Amino acid sequence: MKSIIIASTSTLHGGSYLEYILPALKQHFQNCNSILFIPYARPGGITHDDYTAKVAEAFATINISVKGIHEFENAGHAIKNAEGIFTGGGNTFLLVTQLYQQNAMQILSETVKNGTPYLGTSAGSNICGLSMQTTNDMPIVYPPSFQTLGLIPFNLNPHYLDPEVNSQHMGETRETRIKEFHAFNAIPVLGLREGSWLEVKGEKIILKGSLQARLFKQNQNPEELEPESDLSHLK
């Protein structure tokens, strides 16, 4: 049975890394002594080793050890044998490119669908949808495909921001960008605000956290969803 947490972000303003979601992660990974971390999304300024160390420090507070996928010779083998998996944030284009380069995208999808507990934040959440086409990231590299893990039957827009009422910014809002996506695609898109996450248990998808999420469907007005909303029906 699928067991997944799909979080908008890893860090809330004023908090430490993963601090706000640690109680949920302790429950989520309760049967894991260790997890596999996928640092592929980080494009520069921090090495895979440093990124993994940052994750390990957070998970040590709930007595779980962490090893980076880059420490293994075979990424697919590491995924198949992991007790739990966490894919961190960064640039979604880079993450997707490296997963394909390592022949790991399909293996990761199958492994999580078969029940290995998974956590994604930011870019690691973007790849949980049907495609990565609703990311906020710049296309710094060219992935072989926009198709991602397909763990849920819709797309995500993590870090979703509402327009500021008094802002003088004249550029496109997140809502505008998602509507542009829907000019050519019928896939629903969930805008996840900071501090919100999805909890997936089998085919059940529940919105968690303290904030509403914004649901976009093609040719329909956006809908605000309250925490504890059930999105299992969404296709």
In short:
This protein is α/β, with parallel strands linked by helices and 235 residues long. It contains seven helices and eleven strands.
Write the layout of secondary structure elements.
Layout: E1 3-7, H1 22-28, E2 34-38, H2 48-60, E3 65-68, H3 75-80, E4 85-87, H4 92-101, H5 105-113, E5 118-121, H6 123-126, E6 155-158, H7 174-182, E7 189-192, E8 197-201, E9 204-208, E10 213-216, E11 223-225
Parallel strand pairs: 1-5, 2-3, 2-4, 4-5, 6-7
Antiparallel strand pairs: 1-8, 7-10, 8-9, 10-11
Strands of the largest sheet, in order across it? Answer: 3-2-4-5-1-8-9
Instruction: Give the strand tally.
Output: 11
How would a textbook summarize the main sheet? Answer: 7 strands, mixed
Structural class: alpha/beta
Helix percentage: 10-25%
Give the CA-CA distance, first to last residue.
Answer: 19 Å
Low-confidence stretches: none
Average pLDDT: 96
The gyration radius over C-alpha positions equals 17 Å
Q: In what range is the share of β-strand residues?
A: 15-25%
Helical stretch tally:
7
Q: Note the run of SSEs as H and E.
A: EHEHEHEHHEHEHEEEEE
Tell me, briefly, the overall form: globular
